[in-house]
Amino acid sequence: MKHCPSCVSEFQDRPDLTTCPDCQVALEQGPSPVFEEEEIAADEEIDWETVYTTSDESEAYIVQGFLRENGILAVLESMKFHAQPVNLGLLSEIKILCPLDRVEEAKVLLEDMDSAYVCSVCGTACSILDNTCPNCGERFQAEGN
């Protein structure tokens, strides 16, 4: 298991995967430290529910990172075939799922996400109230400046 220290996305251990495809940041070994305390035991059964769908893989990773940064375990389910990047309708759909007991909280956060934006430097989802990125420290300019 590898993870991106910027967007906290986790990736399977592959020798050819050394940087995050979204953030272009070097991946680190091990699971994301954000969720070490929330690791799922192999015998633990979780009921999952879809809270968000998109056909844009980058958007899916941003939404997943946003939920994780807010303490909600989120996983991606994708049927995309990357060797032929064509839109195949529902087969191109990427679902973001979270545990059933956190669905309402996730939906409220996702509604609030409309008033958030993504840092242009590291890709972290930031609040509209932030003056700087909480992840990389990038200063944001007020609109109209």
Our estimate of the beta-strand percent is 15-25%
How many DSSP H or I helices?
A: 2
Mean pLDDT: 78
Strand-and-helix sequence, N→C?
EEEEHEEHEE
The secondary-structure class comes to alpha+beta
Number of domains: 3
Our measurement of the CA-to-CA distance between the termini, rounded to an integer number of angstroms, reads 43 Å
Radius of gyration: 16 Å
Helix percentage range: 10-25%
Care to count the β-strands?
8
The major sheet is characterized as:
3 strands, antiparallel
Unreliable segments (pLDDT under 50, ≥5 consecutive)? Answer: none
**Given the C-alpha coordinates, what overall shape results?**
globular
As laid out across the biggest beta sheet, the strand order is 2-1-3
Tell me what you see in this structure.
This protein is α+β, with helices and mostly antiparallel strands. It folds into 3 domains: 33 residues, no CATH class; 57 residues; 31 residues, no CATH class. Helix content is 17%, strand content 20%. The protein is built from 2 helices and 8 strands; from the N terminus they run E-E-E-E-H-E-E-H-E-E. A 3-stranded antiparallel beta sheet has the order 2-1-3, with no helix packed on it. A hairpin with a 6-residue loop joins strand 1 and strand 2. The longest helix is centred in the middle third of the chain and has 13 residues. The protein is globular. The protein starts with a strand and ends in an 18-residue tail after the last strand. 25% of the residues are buried. The mean pLDDT is 78.
